[in-house]
Amino acid sequence: MKRLYEPWFRAWLILAPIVGLGSYYLMRNAWRRIRDIVQGNAGSVWDAPSVPEVAEPPSFVLYAIAATLLFTAFWAGTSRLYVKSQPPENQDPS
Question: Which structural domain, as residue segments, surrounds residue 71?
Answer without folding.
Answer: 18-43+52-85
